[in-house]
Amino acid sequence: MVKRLVVIAVAVVLLALGIVLARAVMNSTDSRAFPSEVASGALPQAPAFDLPNLDGSGTTSLAALRGQVVVLNFWASWCDPCKDEAPILEDFWQTEAQPQGIAMVGIDTQDLSDDARAFAKTYGLTYPLVHDAGGAIGRAYGVGAFPETFVLDAQGRAVAWFPGAVTAKTLREAIAKASGA
Amino acid sequence: MIRRCIIVVVLLLVLVPATAFAAQPQFSMSEIETELMCPTCQSRLDLSHAPAAEQIRAFVQRKREAGWTKQQVKDALVQDFGPAVLAAPPASGSGLVVWVVPAALVIGGVVVVVALTLIWRRRRETVAAAPAAIDPALDDRVDEALRALGDDD
Predict the structure, then answer these.
(1) pLDDT digits (tens, 9 = 90+) for A60-93
(2) How far is residue A121's CA from residue A124's CA, in Å, rounded to a whole number?
(3) Which whole number is the average pLDDT over A10-34?
(4) What is the pLDDT of residues B6-35, one digit of tens each?
(5) Minimal Cα–Cα distance from B15 to chain A, Å?
(6) Domain of B37?
(7) How far, in Å, CA of B67 to CA of B21, rounded?
């Protein structure tokens, strides 16, 4: 009876240790794996998303943008470089991206949605903005610093990654690469 | 005139305590800051001055002054930042593992120690109760010596 109890208790302890170990391994997986792959030129498939629009009008999915070159910009209202970048992105959207049929999505992540809406209003952002509630998509893209921008080709493969604020020139070059990829 | 005064007094009695209660902070900043995480720096809110932490702090302060409860504030933050914004994960879903595993380790460990102690104690009692085994060679020598003594008689 006592021996059986020992066996059960040892099994419980081993199971618990196994769970702890499994969680540790899961947590230790490289959170920056996706941008690293993009930087290496591997053209990884961009993680899918279907996120609510920041203005509350439905959702935007990556799947719906298939066939277009896509600029994905991860931002947050508390991020100072995002404040410098916002006018550049808005100008690029109005003068180059939208006229050329290039999709642009601003993904607000790790942020309060009310503050994000106030930010969008302050900077007069008119390109599609979505809110990544919970931050799962930001994590899937390995976003660790703000802002970060990815450029995807028409097949949804990531061809370029820019940690930090982008310029119109860098976007133009990445879009040219995505169009020819 | 008297009627109007009564109405004003009644309105004051009804509205003033209600608004006073609504604006009453339900928790302290230092208390909730130890229960929240900075989402970008993975440290507790009270230990962080990252921009995201400052944003959360300002939000909490606003809602606290508006009379929100601690749970309401936490729920709103979880909605935008996910459960990782809580210092202690919720005791449900995958967060349950964090609560159950240490408990299982402690209970399992205690059961193993108690059971092993019982087994060792029982074994010691059995050994103490058993008659001492005699070396057969010694037994033969004793028999031989006794026989030799008998022959002498």
Answers:
(1) 999 999 999 999 999 999 999 999 999 999 999 9
(2) 5
(3) 68
(4) 776 666 666 655 555 556 888 999 999 999
(5) 29
(6) 25-88
(7) 8
Domain boundary among B88, B114, B141: B88
Indicate which of B38, B80, B81, B105 best probes the interface with A, i.e. most A CBs within 10 Å of its own CB. B80
pLDDT reported for residue B141 = 87
Q: Do A9 and B104 touch (CB under 8 A)?
A: no
The ipTM value here is 0.78
Q: Select the residue of B52, B111, B119 nearest A76 (Cβ to Cβ).
A: B52
Task: Locate the chain B residue with the closest alpha carbon to A133.
Answer: B80
Q: What does the block give as tokens for B105?
A: 């380790």
Kindly give the interhelix angle for A80-92 and A113-122, rounded to the nearest 10 degrees. 50
A33-180 belongs to which homologous superfamily? Glutaredoxin (3.40.30.10)
The partner residue sitting opposite B118, judged by closest CB among A2, A76, A146, is A2
Contacts of A9 in chain B (CB under 8 A): 107-109, 111-112, 115
Structure tokens at A134: 């919970």
Q: How many CA atoms lie within 13 A of A103 on its CB side?
A: 22
